[in-house]
Specification:
It is a single chain. This protein starts with a helix and ends in an 8-residue tail after the last helix. Mean pLDDT is 92; it is low at 481-485. It contains 20 helices and 14 strands. It has three domains: 3-93, Gyrase A, domain 2 (2-Layer Sandwich); 128-379, Rossmann fold (3-Layer(aba) Sandwich), CATH 3.40.50.620; 391-572, Isoleucyl-tRNA Synthetase, Domain 1 (Orthogonal Bundle), CATH 1.10.730. The strands form four sheets. A five-stranded parallel sheet has the order 6-5-4-10-11, with helices on both faces. Strands 1-3-2 form a three-stranded antiparallel sheet. It is of the alpha/beta class. The protein is globular. The structure holds one RNA strand.
RNA sequence: GCUCCCGUAGUUCAACGGAUAGAAUGUGGGCCUCCGAAGCCCAAGAUCCAAGUUCGAUUCUUGGCGGGAGCACCA
């Protein structure tokens, strides 16, 4: 049991005599008062008042009166005092006892602090990282990868097994369009050195725009698509070569984002299977042929008609998604299977899941939707070519981070400057993309992303740098102080120490709830508050210059802070820095 | 037309139906002889409108108004 659970259990034991059986309800009711002066934990008496036919104020008064006597006769470990404030019974925690238990817990569990052992361990698949080849990887994909990755981390921290899956769309109309424009307008051209996939993305945008203006080209595009499908040597070779350009780029992006997939599925590999499933659905009467196309009639369920195959026989997303679902279930036994895709696909997934149900697949599939990333002037579109590529964005943030770092550390060697700037930039980018709720669209604003003050990734890293600074000096100074024999002072007497202890204690609960609700923003926001709490402690409670007894205690607290912030940042994938 | 999401300080975000609606940023003021000022402290500043449910509504329901997104062979 974690320390905070033990504290709460103690409060509940105190309360349960008074209240009766609804113990489980009590745990959920315990809240934090708005201000620490009111107490550390609060129990609202409104529901009880209703049952007892008294005013909440009276009930709170009665309960706190009885509990106070009880505490006088039989002192408890964690709870020092009970006081009623209006309709609430508020509990005050004994800081020194909390410190003793909590610091021991953090020191012994260390990197595992905040992770849980699930009562029933489940296998949960998380699919994310679904870029299309022949298009650029942009900041919209970035949000997808970061959300999927952090959700995977959280589920793991909650004690479950996670299977991370990437699904690459390496076929389809977009590919044919890109190759068409390549042969038509750029034949014999050598792509610029380095990022070949950006070159492809530009050509794709060019193709899309030209086709919009002159739809005559469509026939040629369709012919190319058919040739690739039929295995035409020349076109297949070109497809394979350019596909590999994109895949190499994706691999390097995933790698620098720290995304590790257990398996990668490719649309091109399951397309045939998808077509067979569609045939099967037609045979079984679940799908129908209409105007040559295959569709499932879901109009009676307000889900419209769901098209599974074009009338020219080529496949759609729906075609291959049927096969993908089957493939996942074949490869893994899953308790749950999440698909992280932006909210615009919600309706599509309803159709897909319903179709799978009708087909008799028992899939624990769930679409995890998040709002997309837009630009101030409107939505990004690979077709229009008005995208912000991940690489450009990242380079700009690194540039700013380097300027900031240089201005503070003129003596640092270039390698150290580069490494630090990179770490700061990744922190800034990740915090910016993760601290919003998933149902909040992000209107991309570069000035917010390159800001390193306030609620930002670098601010979180800064607390670690300060922790590191204190620990380093603390080791050197450690013995000296004791020799001097400076006496006096008592640990755990300031409000800032206690507040920091309580915040650290809450961390496992925050991880659990962020994992349970699949909300990375919960954790991101908590870590900012934790950093803030630490800064307040830092300003008001000197560590190294404190009397020995206090210094030893505060050093332990600072070290624990480092552990917890380090663990939290790791879950968000934010690199820790020792100096910045 | 139908469906989904969102309307909270100038701006960007918080707030399991609960106490005085919190932060960040920006603005104004203060704090480096003392563990790192990418920091801390102080001040001003907000729940779109109307009904309903409730002891209690930013939160739930209904109806407006405003913004974004989706809706049959795009991905």
């Amino acid at each position: 049991m974690t320390t905070i659970e033990r504290v709460k259990s103690e409060i509940i034991r105190l309360l349960e005599d008074m209240v009766g059986r609804e113990i489980e309800l009590l745990r959920d009711q315990l809240t934090a008062p708005p201000s620490p002066t009111l107490g550390d934990f609060a129990f609202p008496c409104f529901p009880l008042a209703k049952v007892m036919g008294k005013s909440p104020r009276e009930v709170a008064d009665d309960i706190s009166g009885i509990l106070r006597h009880k505490l006088e006769d039989h002192p408890n470990r964690f709870i020092a005092d009970v006081r009623n404030v209006g309709p609430y019974v508020n509990f005050f925690v004994q800081a020194d006892v909390l410190a003793k238990e909590l610091l021991r817990e953090i020191e012994s569990t260390s990197k595992r602090f905040g992770t849980a052992v699930a009562k029933r361990k489940q296998s949960i698949m998380v699919e994310y990282g679904q870029p299309n080849t022949h298009k650029e990887f942009h900041i919209g994909h970035l949000r997808n990868v970061l959300v999927g990755q952090v959700i995977s981390n959280l589920i793991k921290a909650a004690g479950h097994r996670v299977i991370q899956v990437s699904y690459i769309n390496d076929k389809g109309a977009a590919v044919a369009k890109c190759l068409w424009a390549m042969e038509r307008f750029h034949r014999g051209q050598r792509p610029p050195a380095g990022n070949h996939s950006a070159y492809l993305g530009k050509i794709y945008a060019e193709a899309a725009q030209k086709l919009e203006k002159n739809p005559e080209g469509e026939a040629e595009v369709r012919s190319i698509a058919r040739k690739i499908a039929a295995g035409d040597r020349k076109w297949v070779a070109l497809w394979k070569k350019t596909r590999e350009w994109s895949l190499a780029d994706f691999r390097s992006v995933f790698n620098e984002l720290g995304a590790r997939f257990d398996v990668t599925y490719y649309e091109s590999e399951i397309e045939k299977k998808g077509q067979r499933i569609v045939n099967d659905l037609v045979r079984r009467g679940i799908a129908k042929i209409k105007d040559g196309a295959v569709m499932v009639d879901l109009t009676s369920e307000k889900l419209d008609e769901f098209v599974l195959r074009r009338k020219d026989g080529t496949s759609l997303y729906s075609t291959t998604d049927l096969a993908l679902a089957e493939r996942k279930a074949k490869d893994y036994r899953l308790d749950e299977s999440l698909i992280v895709v932006d909210v615009r696909q919600s309706f599509y997934f309803k159709q897909l899941f319903r179709t799978l149900e009708l087909a008799g697949y028992k899939q624990p599939l769930r679409h995890l939707a998040y709002e997309f990333v837009t630009l101030p002037e409107g939505s990004m579109s690979s077709r229009k070519g008005n995208i912000v590529s991940y690489q450009d964005f990242r380079d700009e943030v690194i540039g700013r981070a380097r300027e900031e770092t240089v201005s503070r550390h003129r003596d640092w060697p270039a390698r150290k400057l580069d490494a630090t700037a990179r770490a700061l930039a990744m922190a800034a980018i990740r915090y910016e993309m993760l601290h919003y709720d998933l149902d909040r669209p992000i209107v991309f604003d570069i000035s917010r992303a390159v800001s390193f003050e306030g609620a930002t990734g670098p601010y979180l890293q800064y607390t670690l740098a300060r922790v590191n600074g204190i620990m380093k000096k603390g080791k050197k100074k450690g013995r000296k102080g004791e020799e001097k024999g400076k006496k006096g002072g008592r640990a755990w007497e300031t409000g800032e120490e206690k507040r920091l202890l309580l915040a650290l204690a809450r961390y496992p609960e925050v991880v659990a709830s962020a994992a349970g609700d699949l909300r990375p923003s919960h954790l991101a926001q908590f870590l900012f508050e934790l950093a803030k709490t630490f800064s307040e402690f830092y300003e008001s409670a000197p560590v190294l210059s404190a009397p020995p007894a206090v210094r030893v205690s505060r050093l332990r607290l600072v070290r624990a802070m480092g552990v917890v912030m380090g663990n939290g940042l790791a879950l968000l994938g934010i690199p820790a820095v020792r100096e910045m």
